[in-house]
Amino acid sequence: MKILAFDTSNKPLSVAVVVDGKILAHIESTEKKTHSVSLLPDIKDTLKKSNLTINDIDLIAVAKGPGSYTGVRIAVTVAKTLADTLQKKLVGVSSLELLAADGDESHVLVPLMDARNDNAFAGVYIHKDGKLVNVLADQHTSMEKLFDTLKPYQESELEFVNATPRLQELIQNQYPNAKVIMSEDSLPDASKLAKLAETTKPVSDVDNFIPTYLRLTQAEHDWYAKGHKEDKNVSYVEEI
To answer: How far is CA 27 from CA 6, 14, 43, in A?
Structure first.
């Protein structure tokens, strides 16, 4: 199977073409360019290095969030457009699951994305029968609440992935002997995304595939703050 995989949900941008488990090309960029500018040229370059065209691809794999609102939207929009116009299969993989793929298979993996103010996007994953299994749903949570949910696990079992210096400080105060992988050592890897996509069910309805945010966007927050009720079809535009 020929897979085009890409992730823009975090600061680094990663694109890869993987064919039957073999990495043909992989581009990883940490340049200070917006992902909206870089993604399509990087996809084009990755395909060129693979000696493939976009029409040769069988499956599009995208990191669907959580993460940067804008970054997640960029990747998901491009993935949906390619899948729809070219009639390709589409797979969305949790951005936290992708980070967990950097962890040690013998540990209980806690991938993190710093959400500021001692909050984080976090989940808990374990390796079972050669696959990553989500045992605590991805969520937006305070670190205090996260630590509370981790009480059933032994400190020596835990491995936190993608910690910023502030999150590392909080973790080490709570679990001084737990393993911590810092952000600079746990960059999202699109080739690992492709591998995860191989065992993930494709999206059944491409049109209704949406990013995973896990918390309100600013538009939603402002809307509800004005007293509006939840409405799945709301546009957050009001008549004045």
So the answer is: 9, 6, 9
